[in-house]
Design goal:
Oligomer: heterodimer
Helix content of chain B: under 10%
Shape of chain B: globular
Strand order of the largest sheet of chain B: 2-10-9-4-5-6
Order of helices and strands of chain B: EEEEEEEEEE
Distance between the termini of chain A: 36 Å
Number of helices of chain A: 0
Number of strands of chain B: 10
Structural class of chain A: mainly beta
Order of helices and strands of chain A: EEEEEEEEEEE
Number of helices of chain B: 0
Radius of gyration of chain B: 13 Å
Shape of chain A: globular
Distance between the termini of chain B: 39 Å
Radius of gyration of chain A: 13 Å
Largest interface: A-B, 25 and 25 residues
Helix content of chain A: under 10%
Strand content of chain A: over 45%
Largest sheet of chain A: 7 strands, mixed
Largest sheet of chain B: 6 strands, mixed
Chain lengths: ~110, ~120
């Protein structure tokens, strides 16, 4: 089973700062099936990035995704107040199917 | 605009079967895509339960496979989840979502909390 490990677990930053979130896979994954989600309290996750680097419809261009193989990164270039949330990475492999990282909580400093 | 809405009992007794339905609007479930279920225990992360195609093809998380059944009702534009022999560990918010397989999930329903307790 491919395990996704996100770091840091918690990140405290101020509006206007740059955020860099990491997702590391226990073995190589296909970039085509690497996605990032944003989840705010009491809400369902929302797709931000798919295919490791493609922004979903409605995702602001301050969000960018990069990486390949086992190391992937979500970058928020300049934090807005609405960006403080929990972020999950997700991958698909033949077995066991979809797996998610444990999440990174982005909080206001 | 595609929208998904979960429905079902919020409380299930241990050893019984959890049953949820996802009603889709703005898109026909038989037009393509896989349709999936994901759950999130309170305060924890996300776990994929399974995905199915309207033709009946299913893919389940191996860790839950023995207890999961997914079905689709194209006439009602709905798909459903049954999880048998539930325990307290199955207490979670259950989400339905659309997604290609392989791929990602978009959009998601708002989620429904199911508590397993006597």
């Amino acid at each position: 089973e491919i395990v996704l490990t996100q770091s840091p677990g918690t990140l405290s930053l101020s509006p206007g700062e740059r955020a860099t979130l990491s997702c590391r896979a226990s073995q190589s994954v296909s970039s085509t099936y690497l996605a990032w989600y944003q989840q705010k309290p009491g809400q369902a996750p929302r797709l931000l990035i798919y295919g490791a680097s493609s922004r979903a419809t409605g995702t602001p261009d301050r969000f960018s995704g990069s990486g390949s193989g086992t190391d992937f990164t979500l970058t928020i270039s300049r934090l807005e107040p609405e960006d403080f949330a929990v972020y999950y990475c997700q991958q698909y492999s033949r077995s066991p199917g979809y797996t998610f990282g444990q999440g990174t909580k982005l909080g206001i400093k | 605009q595609v929208q998904l809405q979960e429905s079902g009992p919020g409380l299930v007794k241990p050893s019984e079967t959890l049953s949820l339905t996802c009603t889709v609007s703005g898109y026909s479930v038989s037009s393509g895509y896989y349709w999936g279920w994901i759950r999130q225990p309170p305060g924890k992360g996300l776990e994929w339960i399974g995905s199915m195609y309207y033709s009946g093809i299913t893919h389940y998380n191996p860790s839950l496979k023995s207890r999961v059944t997914m079905t689709v009702d194209t006439s009602k534009n709905q798909f459903s989840l049954k999880l048998s022999s539930v325990t307290a560990a199955d207490t979670a918010v259950y989400y339905c979502a659309r997604g290609p397989l392989p791929g990602w999930f978009d959009p998601w329903g708002q989620g429904t909390l199911v508590t397993v307790s006597s």
